[in-house]
Amino acid sequence: MDLNNLLDKTIDTSDINSLNNVAKSIAQYIQPGDIFFLNGNLGAGKTTFVRLILNHLGWHNEVKSPTFSIIQLYPDVTPPILHADLYRVNNATNLDIEEYFDTYVSFIEWPDVLQGVNSSRVFNCLLNVEENNRSITIRKIT
Fold first, then answer.
1. Residue 106: strand pairing partners
2. Which strand (E) or helix (H) includes residue 20?
3. pTM (predicted TM-score)
4. What is the pLDDT of residue 75?
5. Which of 28, 37, 74, 100 sits CB 3.0–4.6 Å from 104 for a disulfide?
6. Per-residue b/e over 53-76, b at no fewer than 16 CB within 10 Å?
7. What is the pLDDT of residues 116-134, one digit of tens each?
8. Which of 85-89, 109-113, 119-123 has the lowest mean pLDDT?
9. How far is CA 46 from CA 54, 56, 92, 93, 99, in A?
10. For the chain, which residues make up each domain, given as ranges?
């Protein structure tokens, strides 16, 4: 499935295989400079989603939530991945996260504190959980 086929659709991801299929599609088409804003409640599956994408890129080591480290880099996969969790950050200015935007694919949880992101490929991913139902909606912002 082409990345464009995923855009502007709400996809049922109630079982892990469905989320894995979305992750596989994204892994096939991402390129350095892509930025994915990951939105959803706590426990919605944001880190699981990034873990699945990394698995499809050949990363089979542990993938921890960057809740405490804030930024986790995976330079040994192609393309290299930045995974950030800005939940505990009030101001992202001092993180220098932007220095990775051109050379990494960035997956950013809780992106609201970022200001003026410059990229031609920015996507918003909403991971939604309601009772036993899960879904993901991906929209291209720029």
1. 35, 82
2. helix 16-29
3. 0.92
4. 94
5. 100
6. bbbbbebeeebebbeeebbbebee
7. 777 778 999 999 998 889 9
8. 119-123
9. 13, 16, 19, 23, 23
10. 3-140
